[in-house]
Amino acid sequence: MKVLVLGAGVVGVATAYYLWKDGHEVTVVDRQSGPGRETSYGNAGGLCPSFAGPWAAPGMVSKVLKLSLQRNSPIRFSPLPEPRKVAWVLQWMRNCNADRFRVNKLRMQRVAHYSLRCLREIAANEALPSFDFHEGGVLQLFRTPAELELGRLSAKALEEYGVPWRILAPDEIDSVEPAMRRSSVEMSGALHLPADASGDSYKFAQGLAAFLQQRGVAFRYGVRIESLARAGDAVGAVRTSQGDLHADAYVVALGSHAPFLLRPLGLRLPVYPLKGYSITVPVSDPAAAPRMAVMDEHNKIMISRLGDRIRAAGMAELTGYGLALDPARRELLTNVVRELFPQGLAWDQVEFWAGLRPMTPDGPPILGRTRWRNLFLNSGHGSNGWTQSCGTSKVVADIVAGRAPDIDLDGLTAERFHA
Ligand SMILES: Cc1cc2nc3c(=O)[nH]c(=O)nc-3n(C[C@H](O)[C@H](O)[C@H](O)COP(=O)(O)OP(=O)(O)OC[C@H]3O[C@@H](n4cnc5c(N)ncnc54)[C@H](O)[C@@H]3O)c2cc1C
Q: Nearest C-alpha to atom 25 of ligand 1 is from which residue?
């Protein structure tokens, strides 16, 4: 079958991989000049099923309101009452209770653990160039006793999902992450999650795209997708800046931009961008830089070691589709990294970046069939899209092939939004 994958972020490229494995004739289309150049470019690098859970949680509404009033708050939203944003926020608020949280968390955990297994399989089976894959686990740092207590509670909840964890006393932290020895920040404790990993999703997307290109998958870059043309109960063509493209099946993997293409077909996907920022800094002294991914719970900033660089990322802004770089965000990221890891980084070569997390209001992604016979979705991966990319792509390829996916699809399709 001829399949067009719309979008060459990490999700689109992973989708192309599984479709190619099934023997389809695959073409991937993207407006950028190469794969992974939008949200998949500068994320925190965490491959963290243990963290996979919705932002819509009990108590979050008041927490977000309080935080957004603080100076230098990691959370910010613009007051502009844009209808799509308002609708998204209302749906998000309806999910901020204990019952919905539990259901959504279970759904996200189901995808995330499966997905990391799929990624490990690709890394083991295919000769890809390095994507700085690191299996050393993740360390969540708590600066206050209250944060530690919350961390302990959420760790206990992880037992339900079979996730291994260990609480570390302050004097045990540097036995797991030796670079913390140089930090002057007082810690109340930490949570070690040894099953999690980290890696560079941009390098992964690039390496996998090159691998696929050598094996006959076509990549068409610099092509703007404008609309989908209907043909009865199916999609007949994709209208692009370079003419119409035709296929037997179409998979939408356009990150935060998916709703624009789908709306004219009557599919209202509640995916909205949540902006975040990152800095990437070269390592000048490997012994002084972190070896593993570290989450500073107090500032909600994750710092990952990506080969000879570190990446620090965080912040959440509900401010639309703009990608302007706010110097205050850079300063906050820099200060947090310098506090935790005062040595070993080349601060004269910092790369500052912003990206848009494609968030659903309840948390899980939106996968699989639509009411259009040959149109499939791999969208709404939110703050865990790198972690979830391979598993969701395998699921979508299974659905395109008419096979039952390895994981239950309950709560992971567009049906839950009546879209
Ligand atoms: C600050 C930050 C930190 C993050 N940290 C983590 C983390 O630690 N772990 C984790 O798992 N996830 C993390 N994420 C989330 C993760 O990066 C995303 O969920 C993931 O990259 C989404 O991938 P995607 O392929 O769906 O979207 P994208 O990478 O945005 O890909 C979509 C593609 O569609 C193309 N496109 C869009 N519209 C059009 C059009 N009209 N025509 C042609 N092409 C088009 C774009 O060019 C783009 O290449 C983070 C995100 C941010 C912002």
A: 9
